[in-house]
Structures are given as structure tokens and as C-alpha cells.
């Protein structure tokens, strides 16, 4: 009986509002990201982290030795839409607490899920090159945001996420896929334009939210443990689907939007509204 009560407490936490300060909203709007402390308790991260980890290793198909992988493959194991595969993963992904934060930061009336993805950077895993996520998404509005949730404390040696502050406001590198080239080109361009880079550890329970056009990267994992991270991508509930502009957006339109009509809004079955005022 006690385990049931504990589980219910964890569920309640995932659906209890986390009040975002106006200062945090202003920071996000200006800089394109924000880090928030103590958003999730160690108990929630421990319980759902174990479920997510089991799914990642069960569903993972990338088994090549590290030296045979591409830069992208060395960056992380990437398993998507866990909510479709597992009811308990769905409880975590559909957290109203996390979705409300996304809604408040963007200043919209509600958010839909675009998709979730677990990103596990293995020991000896390489860098995640500079990139902007929305390059991959056939979505009209910049009102998109990813919550990045480390499932453990993440010191510098594990490769925490780093952000180019304010880079969501410039039309820079929006046609570059994540690659060795994006790392080189964007690192040079961001430096030339004097963007400040925020690169700091994450405490347990600390999460970040970054906008779809914010440039970000991560260092290598030189520790002896996997850097386990769960992410959810949210979009304005009234987001409009645009004509795909590259092969990646064509694939995303089919996979994550179920080929919903161009010019319309995403459908509720695959992209349900997770929070709305």
C-alpha cells in the first residue's frame, strides 16, 4: 500500500504547478533559454529515470563501436517518443508541471507536445555540435521550446548543455544541420558576433528550457558514467504546419506530425495539448 501512496505522490508532483518568476520569463525572452532549479525532486527523477533508462537500452539500435560512429552518432543514443511505448514514460512526458512552464516562458495560451526524446551521452561520447533544433521542424512560429532534464547531477565532465545567449534573434546558420560543419561554422560565426556562451553544470533537479532557434551545444562526456537526459519539445498549441524546407523537415512532417495538412494545426492524436489556460 505504501508504494502506491508514493507513486501517487510522484504523479501529483508532475502535475503540480511550478511558479515561474517574471524575472525567469524575461530572461528566457531575451536570451532564448533559462535554467530553473529544483523543478523536479530526486524521488521523481529516480523513479521515472529508471523507467526511461530501461526503455533507452531496450529500444536502442546503435551498437557500433564508438570509433566507427559519425560525429552525430558519437554525441548520444537518441530514443524518441517514449510516451507511445510506455504508460509510465507517458506520465512523465505529459507532466502538466513541465508543460505549464513552457507555456509561461513563451507567453502563449497553451502547448502541444511535438515529440519527446531521451539523449544518453555514453562514457567517451563526443561533443554535440552547435545547432538550432528548429532547422528540423516544419513549423511556422518560433514559439517552440525544449525542456532538457538531466536525470542525474551533470558536472562539466559529463557534457552539460551550453547556450549562445540571444542567438534565437539572428538569422544565422538556419540552414545548417547538426554536424562537424555546423560546429565549425557556427562556433566561428557566434564568436565573430560576440555572443556570450553560457556553459555551466546542472544540479540534480535543475532543468533548462531553450527556444527552437537558440543555438546550443554540449561537450564530450569524459566521465565514467552515462549522461542521462530526457527532453520534451513543446509548441504553441496554435502552431501552424509549414511546407517542409529540407529533407529532415519532410521526414519530421511524416513521423511527428502524421502528415497533417500544410497550413493547418497539428492533430490531437499524435500532438495532444498538454497544458492550456
From TrEMBL:
PANTHER family: ECTOINE DIOXYGENASE, PHYTANOYL-COA DIOXYGENASE DOMAIN CONTAINING 1
Protein name, UniProt field: Phytanoyl-CoA dioxygenase family protein
A Pfam entry, by short name: PhyH
KW Oxidoreductase (keyword) present: yes
SUPFAM superfamilies from the UniProt entry: Clavaminate synthase-like
UniProt keywords, alphabetically: Dioxygenase, Oxidoreductase
Superkingdom of this protein's organism: Bacteria
InterPro entries from the UniProt entry: Phytyl_CoA_dOase-like
Amino acid at each position: 500500500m505504501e508504494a502506491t501512496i508514493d507513486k501517487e505522490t510522484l504523479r501529483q508532483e508532475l502535475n503540480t504547478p511550478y511558479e515561474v518568476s517574471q524575472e525567469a520569463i524575461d530572461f528566457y525572452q531575451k536570451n532564448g533559454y533559462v535554467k530553473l532549479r529544483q523543478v523536479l525532486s530526486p524521488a521523481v527523477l529516480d523513479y521515472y529515470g529508471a523507467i526511461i533508462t530501461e526503455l533507452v537500452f531496450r529500444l536502442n539500435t546503435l551498437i557500433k563501436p564508438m570509433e566507427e560512429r559519425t560525429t552525430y552518432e558519437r554525441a548520444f543514443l537518441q530514443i524518441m517518443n517514449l510516451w507511445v511505448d510506455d504508460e509510465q514514460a507517458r506520465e512523465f512526458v505529459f507532466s502538466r508541471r513541465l508543460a505549464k512552464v513552457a507555456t509561461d516562458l513563451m507567453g502563449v495560451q497553451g502547448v502541444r507536445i511535438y515529440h519527446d526524446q531521451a539523449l544518453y551521452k555514453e562514457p567517451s561520447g563526443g561533443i554535440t555540435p552547435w545547432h538550432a533544433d528548429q532547422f528540423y521542424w516544419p513549423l511556422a512560429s518560433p514559439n517552440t521550446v525544449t525542456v532538457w532534464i538531466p536525470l542525474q547531477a551533470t558536472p562539466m565532465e559529463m557534457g552539460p548543455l551550453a547556450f549562445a545567449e540571444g542567438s534565437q534573434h539572428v538569422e544565422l546558420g538556419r540552414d545548417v544541420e547538426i554536424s562537424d560543419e555546423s560546429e565549425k561554422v557556427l562556433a566561428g560565426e557566434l564568436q565573430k558576433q560576440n555572443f556570450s556562451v553560457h556553459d555551466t553544470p546542472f544540479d540534480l533537479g535543475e532543468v533548462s528550457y531553450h527556444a527552437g532557434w537558440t543555438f546550443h551545444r554540449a561537450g564530450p562526456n569524459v566521465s565514467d558514467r552515462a549522461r542521462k537526459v530526457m527532453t520534451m519539445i513543446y509548441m504553441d498549441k496554435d502552431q501552424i504546419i509549414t511546407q517542409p524546407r529540407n529533407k529532415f523537415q519532410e521526414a519530421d512532417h511524416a513521423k511527428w506530425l502524421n502528415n497533417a495538412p500544410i497550413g493547418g494545426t497539428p492533430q490531437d492524436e499524435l500532438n495532444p495539448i498538454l497544458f492550456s489556460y
